[in-house]
């Protein structure tokens, strides 16, 4: 008998949830006996990528090990360590219940916001990998099957001279022609004079003209070859955001991302409703509850959740379902290793309203080496048909790129 139901349930209740699920819902796996599987361990290792990727492994007594990933954040590995006792002994097939269990336990242990949700996300992704392997189905099948066989990837581009329109256009052309992407993103919160007094959030006329010139130069250069989005990282006032969105309207960008700070939903809504340029928001919000408000208030044209931060695969799916009711497409924010990137690909495959997924590591050189499989080809990710997430960590590569002081995962 597992030991962590008490907190979720009336201690006087006659049945534990496991008994209920076994008797009334039938969690038996396709291979039979799946309901008898128990989680035996949870381990993390940090890899020094373009961000510190937090890889998570869930071990089971069936010999099946699942790999997940949490977005980086101070204290995430420690939080996962603290959550370990809440999942050991539990059935890894009860993904939803374990997610709610962790949320509920952690609300008493600190909070269910920020890095706590990030840490839970890493475990949740690993549970999908475990469940897929035990049930012998790819993870997208656990989410209802697929709408598409491949996911479009957009490349987050950088140059040393990020404020030089021609340098940005050169890089856009290179990424399209040499790396094969047909979707790109550039930063637009680049030096335009504004940074001398960033605190007032107001864009001076010359700054608007400079930013519009970057947008014009880049979009003209890759016209008919790529869609281009621009990211502002929560920098401008509502008024400046509207002026900027209007100034670039004629260049028909894919989207303008995070033009205003995240705290004030009314300002966000005002900007989105009063501009034609599509506005994308979402990467720094947590759980369906927070993103739901953005979507229901029609404060976003495109929603951009970060899967290994927002709550994991089913939470992203729930966000996409709310978005779909408002005809809002999903462009998944992603700065992760191949593990969470592929987890997001399974979710993107399983929803109708998927636009694309981000790739943030093209300058790294060894991103794909972390796993044995090929991941991105010609700007697209093929949805894997192997059980679970469908990737195998290359342990030599993990060891080579591990953050100093980390230890490698135990063997299965
Ligand atoms: O959309 C993006 O890729 C950016 O907002 C990155 O997440 C940010 O620079 C990380 O600190
Ligand atoms: Mg962004």
Report on the architecture of this protein:
It is a single chain. With 412 residues, the protein is α/β, with parallel strands linked by helices. It folds into 2 domains: 5-137, Enolase-like, N-terminal domain (Enolase-like, domain 1, 2-Layer Sandwich); 146-386, Enolase-like C-terminal domain (TIM Barrel), CATH 3.20.20. Helix content is 38%, strand content 15%. It is built from 14 helices and 13 strands. The chain has helices at residues 17-25, 76-87, 95-109, 114-135, 139-142, 165-177, 205-221, 238-247, 265-273, 287-296, 307-310, 313-325, 338-350, 395-401, and strands at residues 39-48, 52-60, 65-70, 150-156, 183-187, 227-231, 256-257, 279-281, 302-303, 330-332, 354-359, 376-377, 380-382. The strands form 2 sheets. Strands 4, 5, 6, 7, 8, 9, 10, 11, 12 and 13 form a 10-stranded mixed β-sheet that branches. Strands 1-2-3 form a 3-stranded antiparallel β-sheet, sandwiched between helices. Helix 2 crosses helix 4 and helix 7 crosses helix 8. The longest helix has 22 residues, at 114-135. The protein is globular. The model is unreliable at 1-34 (pLDDT under 50). It binds D-arabinonic acid (D8T) and magnesium ion (MG). The site of magnesium ion (MG) has 4 residues, from loops. Keywords: Lyase. It comes from Halorubrum kocurii JCM 14978.
Largest sheet report: 10 strands, mixed
Shape: globular
Task: State the CATH architecture of the largest domain.
Answer: Alpha-Beta Barrel
**CATH H-level superfamily of the largest domain:** Enolase-like C-terminal domain
Helix content: 25-40%
Instruction: Report the β-strand fraction as a percent range.
Output: 15-25%
How many separate structural domains?
2
**Mean of pLDDT:** 92
**What is the ordering of alpha helices and beta strands?**
HEEEHHHHEHEHEHEHEHEHHEHEEEH
Strand segment tally: 13
CATH topology-level fold name of the largest domain:
TIM Barrel
Q: What is the CATH C level class of the largest domain, in words? A: Alpha Beta
User: What gyration radius follows from the Cα positions, in whole Å?
Assistant: 22 Å
- Termini separation comes to 23 Å
User: Which residues sit in consecutive blocks of at least 5 with pLDDT less than 50?
Assistant: 1-34
Structural class: alpha/beta
List cofactors, ions and other ligands.
D-arabinonic acid, magnesium ion
Number of helices: 14
Domain Mandelate racemase/muconate lactonizing enzyme C-terminal: 165-278
GO molecular function: xylonate dehydratase activity
GO biological process, one term: amino acid catabolic process
Pfam families: MR_MLE_C (PF13378), MR_MLE_N (PF02746)
């Amino acid at each position: 008998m597992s030991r962590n139901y008490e907190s979720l349930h009336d201690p006087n209740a006659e049945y534990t949830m496991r008994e209920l699920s076994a008797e009334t819902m039938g969690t038996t796996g396709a291979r039979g006996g799946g309901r008898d599987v128990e989680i035996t361990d949870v381990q993390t290792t940090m890899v020094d990528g373009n961000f510190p990727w937090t890889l998570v492994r869930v071990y089971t007594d069936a010999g099946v090990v699942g790999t997940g990933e949490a977005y980086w954040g101070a204290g995430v590995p420690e939080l996962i360590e603290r959550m370990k006792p809440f999942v050991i002994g539990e059935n890894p097939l009860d993904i939803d219940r374990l997610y709610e269990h962790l949320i509920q336990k952690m609300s008493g242990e600190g909070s269910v916001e920020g890095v706590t949700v990030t840490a839970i996300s890493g475990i949740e992704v690993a549970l999908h990998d475990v469940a897929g392997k035990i049930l012998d189905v790819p993870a997208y099948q656990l989410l209802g099957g697929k709408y598409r066989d491949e996911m479009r990837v957009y490349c987050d581009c950088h140059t040393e001279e990020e404020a030089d329109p021609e340098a940005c256009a050169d890089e856009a052309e290179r990424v399209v022609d040499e790396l094969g992407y047909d979707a790109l993103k550039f930063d637009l919160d680049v030096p335009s004079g504004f940074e001398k007094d960033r605190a007032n959030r107001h864009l001076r006329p010359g700054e608007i003209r400079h930013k519009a010139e970057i947008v014009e130069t880049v979009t003209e250069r890759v016209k008919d070859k790529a869609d281009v989005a621009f990211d502002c990282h929560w920098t401008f006032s509502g008024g400046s955001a509207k002026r900027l969105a209007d100034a670039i309207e004629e260049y028909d960008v894919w989207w303008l991302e995070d033009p205003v700070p995240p705290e004030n939903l009314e300002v966000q809504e005002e900007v989105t409703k009063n501009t034609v340029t599509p506005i994308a928001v979402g990467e720094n919000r947590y759980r369906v509850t927070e993103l739901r408000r953005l979507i229901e208030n029609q404060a976003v044209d495109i929603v951009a959740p970060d899967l290994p931060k927002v709550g994991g695969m089913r939470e992203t799916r729930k966000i996409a379902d709310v978005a779909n009711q408002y005809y809002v497409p999903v462009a998944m924010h992603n700065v992760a290793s191949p593990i969470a990137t592929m987890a997001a690909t399974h979710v993107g495959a399983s929803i109708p309203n998927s636009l694309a997924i981000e790739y943030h590591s093209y300058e790294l050189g060894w991103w794909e080496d972390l796993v044995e499989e090929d991941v991105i080809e010609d700007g697209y990710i093929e949805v894997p048909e192997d059980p679970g997430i469908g990737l195998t960590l290359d342990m030599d590569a993990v060891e080579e790129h591990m953050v100093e002081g980390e230890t490698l995962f135990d063997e299965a």
